[in-house]
């Protein structure tokens, strides 16, 4: 029951490096194209390099890995309309499906079974004014059982970013209901500094490192 094709940058098998699922083996489907130009983007190659692949074939290639998780990522995966059918079909097959999105587009149309990891871009990214406020509204309005399907990710490059993030979390009381993953922009902010701030402020967030960048060379693709 394929319903379309997608422009795919890469399909690969790796250790989930971020999010509350970090450490698990995961099959990744990286969709091509984004266009937001965040400072510090580590998948800029996904802008242009793509193959058009039918949904059935994407599912077939992903199944080979027999991974406990399948993550749909990018680029910005929500730019391609057929991604919704892909996620729905993966859920129907019984997979645990993660979506990682840059947070500029609304996740309103995403299958509710999908675990949504939504970036909230901080000022150092250069695009914090493009965060889509609807995603926070949708998460807050979700029924309790579906709230656990939302998770927010903040990648920080400076103390200023940290103060900005703290204020946003407090404004919406996000730490009361959601997992907030907070990490550093690789090479811009020392993890130890961020850890100190979180502890000092008693901030109820989960600190994350990009695990895959410690296992493999930081600029390696397909991991
Ligand atoms: S949203 Fe993600 S893929 Fe797009 S430019 Fe920003 S970091 Fe890169």
Characterise the protein shown here.
- This protein has helices at 55-63, 83-92, 133-141, 144-147, 159-172, 191-200, 211-215, and strands at 5-15, 25-31, 51-54, 69-73, 96-101, 115-119, 150-156, 179-184, 206-207.
- The mean pLDDT is 95.
- The chain has one domain (5-213): TIM Barrel.
- The chain has seven helices and nine strands.
- The longest helix is centred in the C-terminal third of the chain and has 14 residues, at 159-172.
- The two termini are 30 Å apart.
- With 223 residues, the chain is an alpha/beta fold.
- The protein has a nine-stranded mixed beta sheet.
- The chain binds iron/sulfur cluster (SF4).
- Iron/sulfur cluster binds at residues 34, 36-38, 41, 43, 74-76, 102.
């Amino acid at each position: 029951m394929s319903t379309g094709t997608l422009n795919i940058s890469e399909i690969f098998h790796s250790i989930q490096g971020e999010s509350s699922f970090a450490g698990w083996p995961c099959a990744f489907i990286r969709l091509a194209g984004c266009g937001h130009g965040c400072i510090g983007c580590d998948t800029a190659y996904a802008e242009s390099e793509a193959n058009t692949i039918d949904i059935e074939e994407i599912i077939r290639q992903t199944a080979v890995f027999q991974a406990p998780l399948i993550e749909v990522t990018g680029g910005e995966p929500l730019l391609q309309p057929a991604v919704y059918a892909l996620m729905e079909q993966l859920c129907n097959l019984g997979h645990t499906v993660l979506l990682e999105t840059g947070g500029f587009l609304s996740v309103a149309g995403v299958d509710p079974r999908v675990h949504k990891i939504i970036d909230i871009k901080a000022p150092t990214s250069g695009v914090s004014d493009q965060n889509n406020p609807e995603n926070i509204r949708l998460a807050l309005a979700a029924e309790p059982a579906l709230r656990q399907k939302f998770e927010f990710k903040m990648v920080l490059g400076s103390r200023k970013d940290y103060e900005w993030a703290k204020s946003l979390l407090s404004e919406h009381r996000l730490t009361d209901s959601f997992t907030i993953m907070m990490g550093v922009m690789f090479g811009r902010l020392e993890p130890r500094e961020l850890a100190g701030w979180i502890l000092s402020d008693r901030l109820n967030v989960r600190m994350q490192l990009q695990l895959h960048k410690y296992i493999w060379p930081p600029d390696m693709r397909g991991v």
